[in-house]
Write a structure and sequence with these properties.
The protein is α+β, with helices and mostly antiparallel strands and about 700 residues long. It folds into 5 domains: about 5-65 and about 125-210; about 65-125, no CATH class; about 220-335, no CATH class; about 340-540, Orthogonal Bundle (Hypothetical protein af1432), CATH 1.10.3210; about 565-689, Isoleucyl-tRNA Synthetase, Domain 1 (Orthogonal Bundle). Helix 11 crosses helix 15 (about 445-465). The longest helix is centred in the middle third of the chain and has 26 residues, at about 310-335.
């Protein structure tokens, strides 16, 4: 076995920062799969990525020539030869496909009959020939949503590919991928046109660092950035609130990171904190520095992509850019504050919410009505709720939000607080968009929760009314996210809202002609239930439990959640299997009856001791759980079903259900029906058999 080191580096124009990690990982996984397909073995694969390169280093790859055994079953003997014994067209085509003469084929017998069979050994192509093809396939298998075309071949990738290195130890593997010929010259830093010659694959990635401080290893580069920003912040007795998303993005933007400290004017600290942090982090991709009191320093740390001999010039340039952005924010703030937040309300009449759904002003009016209705269930101050809804969209027409759209809600909160609005009202304005992504935190106030539900429900209803319904491939208005957000708030905040009532109330606020509310309602409720199944599966609940509860057509998420939790708990109890088997047996017996079993148990028809015990146990169970059912405490109810286990077992063991006396038989069936009704009030247990 001959073991070597294989280096592959794909030099590109700057790759999208937010996708760099996933692109690199996909390339690694795809190449791994292709090598396995050709039974090429190796010790391990190391992968690297910078904004301008994707690289893989395969350690101890086996380059020995291989022999492959091919086994191919052909047509049956009946179909392979005609009545004269001559090969049919089907047999000849199969032989040609296998690369053999029909006379070279053997036969194989199976239970289904006798078949033509081809068994031969061939030499696999040399690895030097296979590698370009493998790399090409691995790159093209990366899923690309937004791609670019840049040459005559019309092939697509995230960004144009400019250079390809394929080096097996010291040997350059010749090939052409994406119309680029392979070589042994690595792409250099963006500031340097001269390429870096690499003579041996083992030199990678150290040679990049030695020549131009390029850190090809993503994890090392990220760690380097964190260490640098922490050291700088500590020097001025501050600290960094590490935002992993920001660090990941910056790591994907640079390949020779150097952290530098910049300063901005102290008067910019008067800008509300969240707005200031947004400009520094999201707009400028820099790190704000905090003191022990959680206050901001008039400083920021930025990551340069070059280790300059004149860092002061770079610092001065970044300070000028930061000053311009913060000056804009300060100007917008000053301009916006000439009037109160509520004075922007009439301006919403000029802003379209969505075609055929009116303006943002129309949406605001609907939100006020909807949140007033929701407030009955969320136990909040109705006037405060209406006020929050009234002000909720006003910041959308401010200069600040027009310049920094991501600050919608946050700007409204600051402006309303400045206008002496109630704290809960102001906080709700910010929280109306939460949760905005998977795993995002929920609104902290009940007014915020109510406004978030109203806002999301209004959008969802409107979009369904005009036919903007998500498909399996597209959801341009993020309606799935809105539905999950509504469900999470209702369930986690324990709000007794019924989706049926919520949807119908929301639909009633839209005055759209030719829309059948019943049809739209059915589409929306089905959409919610599908999202609910997805959410529970994501949280590792058993699909059988989910289906058992949802099969009852429940529409109150809080009740659904309690049942799913209770049944999931019940399944892990020692006696649950026995109870479930008993329910199954009872259900099968009752299904066989042609007539519907109804009525009350006749005490005078009870004869056997086991019958009496079961009847008494059921009666006591009903008494003990009546209040629990009213309070929907399903976990406690299922715990009490333990008392039914033994009486049900003894009943089946000792009592003959199909008695010769028809009245006694019916009476015993009614007794079983009483047991079944206990459990059907909780869920459809047939899914759990």
């Amino acid at each position: 076995m001959t073991k070597k080191i294989l280096l592959i580096e794909i030099g590109t124009e700057e790759l999208p920062a937010k996708l760099l990690s996933s692109i690199s990982l996909s390339f690694y996984k795809n190449l791994n799969e292709e090598l396995k397909l050709y039974t090429i073995v190796y010790k391990k694969i190391e992968y690297f990525s910078t904004p301008r390169r994707l690289a893989l280093k395969i350690i101890d790859i086996d380059t020995t020539d291989k022999t492959i055994e091919i086994n191919k079953k052909g047509p049956s003997i009946i179909d392979a030869y005609d009545k004269d014994g001559a090969p049919t067209n089907a047999a000849n085509r199969w032989a040609k496909y296998c690369g053999i003469n029909i006379n070279e084929a053997t036969r194989i017998k199976t239970k289904q009959g006798e078949w033509l069979f081809c068994q031969k050994k061939i030499k696999q192509k040399k690895i030097e020939i296979l590698l370009p093809k493998i790399i090409d396939i691995a790159l093209k298998k990366i899923i690309i949503q937004k791609s670019m075309r840049w040459n005559v071949t019309n092939e697509k990738f995230f960004r144009p590919i400019r250079n390809i290195v394929i080096l097996l130890d010291r040997k350059v593997i010749k090939g052409k991928i994406f119309d680029v010929f392979s070589n042994n010259f690595l792409q250099n830093h963006i500031s340097c046109q001269e390429k870096i010659e690499i003579k041996d694959a083992k030199e990678y990635p150290l040679i990049l660092f030695q020549r131009n401080n390029i850190i090809a290893d993503y994890a090392i580069r990220k760690k380097t950035i964190i260490n640098q920003i922490n050291k700088i912040s500590e020097k001025i007795n501050g600290y960094i609130k590490t935002s992993n998303n920001l660090i990941e993005e910056i790591t994907s933007l640079v390949e020779s990171p150097t952290a530098l400290l910049g300063t901005f004017k102290k008067n910019f600290l008067k800008i509300p904190k969240k707005i200031l942090v947004h400009v520094i982090e999201s707009q400028q991709k820099c790190f704000p520095i905090y003191n022990v009191k959680n206050e901001l320093f008039p400083n920021f740390i930025f990551i340069s992509n070059i280790d300059s001999k004149k860092p002061n010039k770079i610092i001065l340039g970044n300070e000028k850019v930061m000053d311009a952005r913060l000056s804009d924010a300060a100007f917008f703030l000053q301009n916006d504050r000439k009037i109160k937040l509520e004075d922007y309300l009439m301006s919403l009449k000029k802003v379209l919410f969505q075609n055929n759904l009116g303006t943002l002003y129309d949406k605001t009016l609907r939100l006020q009505i909807l949140i007033q209705w929701i407030s009955k269930y969320s136990c909040i101050n109705i006037q405060d709720a209406i006020r929050a809804a009234q002000l909720s969209k006003c910041d959308l027409v401010t200069s600040m939000v027009c310049e920094f759209p991501a600050l919608q809600g946050t700007v409204g909160m600051y402006y309303s607080l400045s206008d002496k609005e109630k704290k809960d009202v102001s906080q709700a304005i910010q929280e109306q968009y939460s949760p905005s992504f998977s795993g995002d935190k929920l609104p902290s106030t009940m007014i915020g929760c109510s406004l978030a539900i109203a806002d999301k429900m209004d959008t969802l209803s409107g979009m369904f009314c005009i036919g903007n319904i998500p498909t399996s491939a597209k959801d341009p208005f993020a309606l799935r996210r809105l539905a999950i957000g509504i469900l999470r708030i209702i369930i986690i905040k324990n709000i007794p809202l019924d989706l049926k009532c919520l949807i119908n109330k929301s639909l009633s606020l839209y005055n759209i002609k030719y829309v059948n509310d019943v049809i739209i309602y059915n589409k929306i409720i089905k959409f919610f239930m599908n999202r609910l199944v997805y959410w529970y599966e994501e949280n590792s609940y058993d699909i059988k439990v989910i289906q058992s509860v949802l099969s009852s057509q429940l529409t109150e998420p809080r009740d659904i959640h309690k049942k799913i939790q209770a049944i999931s708990f019940f399944q892990n109890l020692e006696y649950s299997k026995s109870i479930i088997q008993s329910i199954k047996r009872i259900s099968n017996i009752l299904k066989k009856e042609k007539e519907k079993i109804t009525g009350h148990v006749d005490i005078q028809l009870i004869q056997e001791k086991e019958e009496i015990v079961l009847f008494s146990t059921i009666k006591k169970f009903h008494t003990d759980t009546k209040k629990l059912f009213q309070e929907k405490k399903y976990k406690e109810i299922l715990l009490k079903t333990k008392v039914l286990e033994k009486p049900i077992y003894n009943f089946f063991d000792k009592v003959k259900i199909h008695h010769s006396n028809i009245k006694i038989r019916i009476n015993r069936l009614i007794l079983l029906k009483k047991i079944e009704s206990i459990f059907t009030k909780i869920t459809n247990f047939s899914y759990l058999y």
